[in-house]
Amino acid sequence: MKVSSLAQSALGWLRRLRLRLTRRPEPAASYGMKVGKSCTVGQPRELSGAENIHIGDRTLIRVGAWLAAYPSYAGRTFQAELRIGSDVYIGGFATITAIQRVTIGDGCVLSEFVYVSDHSHGFNPTRGLIAEQPLVSKGEVSIGAHSFVGYQACILPGVVLGSHCVVGANSVVTRSFPDYSMVAGTPANLVATFSLTEGRWLRVPKHRVD
User: Fold this and answer.
1) Which CATH architecture has domain 26-203?
2) Chain segment 88-119, per-residue pLDDT in tens
């Protein structure tokens, strides 16, 4: 191939890549999900069980998300449901998967690369490859309305967060917290609570056991 032809081919590839990375989000309904008004979703990197995914009005999910409400896996069937409320923002490359139920309340903001799941693989050393072992649920996941989940945070199976919670970046949430909780760390611990009477976040003493 001549140099000029190679250069033209490379330029064409770069143009296509730029268009793919910069194109506007597409209507979520085009992916087969059940959505409300003015909802947009960037191209997912993976999508499973679209018919079991419900999204409210005016929600925006950025490009590269992995969204799944698995109808089946490794020979097992599930009644999975993923519900994302209205006015929710989910950053790029988030992973949100369910084999039972994952609920994200209205007005939530999930940052980039957030992970939320109600299940894990089996880890039995006698049953072959991990990826081929059945999925196991350890409880439904719920994120209360108007909560914020920071960059690369993980919300693990069985966790219920109340409304208006804040999860710090890179945190791993392994247990539930009530409304108006600010949590951070690995595993996440309570670091502050919001006082409605004082109108501000109040730090929790380090020695407190919550």
Assistant:
1) 3 Solenoid (2.160)
2) 999 999 999 999 999 999 999 999 999 999 99
